[in-house]
Specification:
alpha/beta, TIM Barrel, Elongation Factor Tu (Ef-tu), domain 3, six-stranded antiparallel sheet
Length: 394
């Protein structure tokens, strides 16, 4: 039997729950940032002291670990970043970067490096330059179509985004956040003013609300419809955007694309998968630049997420009885009912999705539990201290 090719699925990890969710959902590799020099400064991120734990979690399932150090670096930061790279070396498989100072340090300490999408590599000449410099892989500019990707993939291993937020600017090189709030996107501090609603005001103060007042807000990339074409393009790693996203987002998106990369999905499977993707954070879906230049249809009319589901905090697991796999949940907000879907999220647990089939208080079954009560529910794999959320349909 002919063995199907292996496609690397690369998942975002902005926190321990998201990291564990990615590993459990089938990611082959994860990328993450530290508290400094990360293009997602607003994510929870990690510290150097977390690296042994990250390494241990990923080692269990042979998941590779890529550290992102892909911001602009200034002279007074060179000593600090060298210390970080030196200390990180034993715990990572590669560094994602584009500043030449970081590249030189990776070469000095013999650490494999991948060129970040921030470098906007969009042609074979640029790819060849970085290959000669020693890069193992290039995360290509997002402004390429499938044919252009095929050309560059013949030069060097390439990594491409397949799902997640799109920037209205070229490869994230936007200065709007810098001008308005003194928060530089190129330092990972973007406040995403492009996603806000805007009105037009004239010199006399008259205002005009635009028909679609989120005029700079791009829809999210979704490649599920044409993933088979991307498989044929020679892409080495298929990357999911979302280091600011919640664990349930990471879990859902990784599971769906894992299945799509491992087999060819039928039309009904794609439709069902799209319904699942719509349950987690999204601003609507676009094919990005893969199938041609985006049009006005690729701009979102949503200022916030249009997900069909959201989560509401319910309470914490105060005790966990390991032998019986029963969690004691102290309800601090809202209520729980038989049939409810809940999410269990924790730094060691990652994410557990669970449908309530039975609840008890003092061994007495009940159909509903309210704020202030402590209820017992059988939830395999949970832990004391985990947070409990109710899944609510919009």
């Amino acid at each position: 039997m002919k063995k199907s090719p292996h496609y690397e699925l690369l998942a975002p990890a902005g926190s321990f729950p998201s990291l564990i969710a990615a590993v459990n959902a089938g990611a082959n590799s994860i990328y993450f940032g530290l508290n400094e020099f990360s293009m997602r400064a607003s994510a929870k991120n990690f510290s150097l002291s977390n690296l042994p734990k990250i390494n241990e979690i990923c080692k269990q399932k042979k998941v590779k670990k890529y550290l992102t150090l892909n911001t602009i670096i200034y002279d007074d930061e060179l000593v600090k970043i060298e210390k970080i790279i030196k200390k990180a070396k034993p715990f990572i498989d590669a560094i994602i970067c584009w500043d030449l100072s970081v590249i030189q340090l990776c070469k000095k300490y013999k650490i494999p490096f991948h060129i970040s999408t921030q470098a906007s590599v969009a042609n074979k000449k640029a790819a060849l330059f970085y290959k000669k410099l020693g890069a193992e892989r290039i995360v290509l500019a997002r402004e390429l179509n499938i044919q252009q990707i095929k050309e560059i993939a013949s030069i060097i291993d390439v990594e491409c985004f397949i799902h997640g937020a799109m920037c209205v600017s070229i490869s994230g090189r936007c200065f709007t956040s810098q001008f308005l709030f003194n928060k530089s996107a190129n330092r990972g501090e973007c406040l995403q003013p492009c996603r806000r609603a805007y009105t037009i005001k004239d010199e006399d103060g008259n205002e005009l609300k635009l028909e679609n007042n989120t005029v700079m807000s791009a829809k999210d990339l979704c490649s599920l419809d044409f993933i088979e074409e991307l498989k044929k393009a020679g892409i080495k790693a298929f990357k999911i955007e979302g280091r600011n996203r919640e664990p349930e987002y990471v879990d859902t998106v990784v599971r769906i694309y894992r299945k799509a990369l491992d087999k060819k999905l039928s039309e009904s499977e794609i439709k069902q998968s799209m319904e699942e993707l719509n349950k987690v954070y999204t601003k609507g879906f676009s094919s990005g630049f893969y199938c041609g230049i985006p049009t006005k249809k690729d701009f979102s009319k949503e200022q916030h997420s249009s997900a069909t589901q959201r989560k509401e905090f319910i309470g914490n697991i105060t005790h966990y009885f390991l032998e019986k796999q029963v969690a004691a949940i102290k309800i601090s907000s809202g209520k729980l009912q038989i049939g409810n879907e809940i999410l269990i999220i924790g730094n060691k647990t990652g994410l557990i999705k669970h449908k309530i089939e039975r609840m008890e208080i003092n061994r007495n079954p009940l159909n509903e539990a309210r704020k202030g009560q402590e209820v017992g529910i059988k939830i395999p794999g949970a832990r004391k201290g985990d947070k409990v959320y109710l899944v609510v349909k919009k």
